[in-house]
Fold each of these.
Amino acid sequence: MFTARDLSEPLTTVRDEHAPEALVVDTTDFQTLPSTQAEELGLLVDALDPVAHPDDWLPSDCPEQLRAYVGPDFTIGLPGDGGVTWTTQTTPPTVFVKNRMEGSPDSFVDFLIAEALVQAGLGVPEQFTGFFRSEYSTLDTVTPLSPADTYQLATALYAAYLGLHTRPIFEAWAETIPALHAAWRDAGERLTPRLSGLTSEVATGETSFAAAAELACNALKHGCDLPTPFGALDTAAYRESGPEYAIVWARKTFEELPD
């Protein structure tokens, strides 16, 4: 199920700097990798350290896949992780390139792998549950969203937080790793046209708030100009205070949204 992936010179440079010795593997597609398959990684890595969080961090009606992830079973990945994801539940960290990426431009796939390596080296949780901790239940109470949309919003907010940490690194690649910088910039340029009408799309119900948050928060890492209310996340205050800022932002945002 897992096959070691050969890395280009730019990706080797990123790995050496941010996640030394990290393993990058090609794998079959998955959303949540159950313990029976996740444990196959034990044949490739030095050690396994399954993550586990208190169940009372989660609202009672949260998606079952999220509850399984925080439980004692060794579980990797969650819906919304995309075609490239990573875990630090292994030593060394592992980056997964799912087969859904086949056919995507090589430069884009390389950027996603590089991003995963950078994130894996930040020393941050691999999922939003470790970021929000018990505040995830608070997020659930301050939003009028469904459990699935609250999950999507939490994922987006954590992506924005990560983007505030990774964006300066991507920007610096203009001088050190120009090919990856060009791929990062190109991805941002492709997102920009989709952002211009986002606020009105939410207001008219054409786009759900959670879907809009996902788009805007992922655009943050590319330095795009974000529409209201998501531009308020692109701030040093969020980078520094994390979940506390996210909760305040969510509360104020939904208080100000029209009924």
Amino acid sequence: MKLERLLSIIILLLNRRMIQAKELAEQFEVSTRTIYRDIDAINAAGIPIVTYQGTNGGIGLSEGYRLDRNILTNDELASIVSALRSISTSYGKEKHQRLVDKINSVVLPAHTEDFQQKTNRILIDYSPWDGMDRLRSKLQLLDEAIDSCVLVSFTYSNAEGEISERIVEPHMLILKGRQWYIKAYCLEKKDFRLFKLKRMKELDLDQDKHFIRRESPTHELFESRSNLNDAKVPEIVLRFKEEARHLAEEWFGMEELLPDEDDGWLVKKAFPEDEWLYSFILSLGHHVEVLEPKHLRGIIANRAEQIVKKYKNDKVT
């Protein structure tokens, strides 16, 4: 990912007077053109990097300028390492490991043991239970397309099951709610859209068709969807049986539970109403009952009836 690569380049220049763009390109498996764009981004951030011409030339920090190694404390570096290891559970383990190694190399030997203890306190595992092989190949392909600024085509199935062929300009990979999305400019819709990776198939990069990155929103696509749904859906009230209290605590937290007069527990929460909500409530089975709103109660009852119809003629042995 670009941020990981930029940090790696900066740390390399802390420890080496000069390095060639070709060597950086080979190390990070990108084009030299991408490396020079990275250098421009680092310069724009206020770190003066210059290119030295000639046989023994390369890229290095401006003469007379050096970054203070103590610009980040050991605690801050440990937080970066912990974050990288967590991200690596679902994306780019090999690339992130190189940066982890470089950060470890700038920690003074006297502080190594304490530093290692701090980096091993927390690990957030983003990987799904059903494995990452197929998803990881999509992530790598889209990451390559973002770096190279090339168009991507794919077949997409939306939440309603509608199939369409899309050609997009990929801009950003986003992990939200344990799901990966690609934010991209859709040539058909002529606007930015979010596409869930699990709904994409037959991905193909067109290496001959490059695009110029557009100014794009960061989180507005998610926020607009959330705000829209919150406006449409009233507060949802769920009743859990006493024996299912552990399920309510697991999903909503102990603080959200309110005692019910029927020796159960109530949870009041605003949710966007969509297929995910219906599936979530049904997944809790007989342990939960929808009290409000009434129309949602009807939807769940109807879907439960449809499930019963599928199985009612089966003989139980």
Amino acid sequence: MFTERDLPEDVSGVRASHATGALVLDCEADFETLPPAQAEELGLLVDALDPTSYPEEWLPPEVPTQLRRYVGTEFTVGMPGDGGVTWTRQTDPPIVFVKARTEGSPEDFLDFLVAEALVEVALDRPEHFLGFFEGRYRDLAAATRLSPADTYQLAVALYDASLGLDTREVFRGWDEEFPRLHDAWVDAGERLQPRLSDLPREVATGRTSFPAAAELACAGVKHGLDVPTPFGALDTEAYRDHGADYAVTWARKTFEKLRE
């Protein structure tokens, strides 16, 4: 199920700089919640395994089934929206998982995703948006009045932007030390840019839902791109400083304007 991944020199350099000792594992299958047998297999590769759980009180009454399962004691790594490369500090040492769904991805971009995960796992940040919002997730749902699935998608995007505010300067600094990874980060941003300028019109005409637009815009924040109103307000020191409180206030004000 799990095999230690051979890392190219630049990705090994990122690990040495940010997450010394972290394991990077290739996975034979896709998974989120690990069955007991696979969790036991994983436990043989690490010194300790301590699954995280969260209070039920943090959840609004209606949430996707996977999120309700996530707050329990089952060992879960990655959730819908987290992509094929995920990380966890529920183990000692921490682990970056490269899941089977990444097969066929461009090599440079996949190596960047692994390097990005190594940078993120070294931060003192939750590995899922629920650990970021905590009880404010209920407030986010109340502020937007979106469906449970759309609220989930918006929360993923908002936390993605928050992480990006902490990581993008690291990626910018790789232009000389790790130029291949830096170029992959830049290329991913350039592919996003054409979509961003039309986002307000797409949302206004119903061609793109607000949560989907937020997903694109918040990815733009991670890449240091110019993002349109109202998402530009997330690319601020205020968001970096005030976190979930800021995100909920932004959502409430934004949806009040959308309802006018």
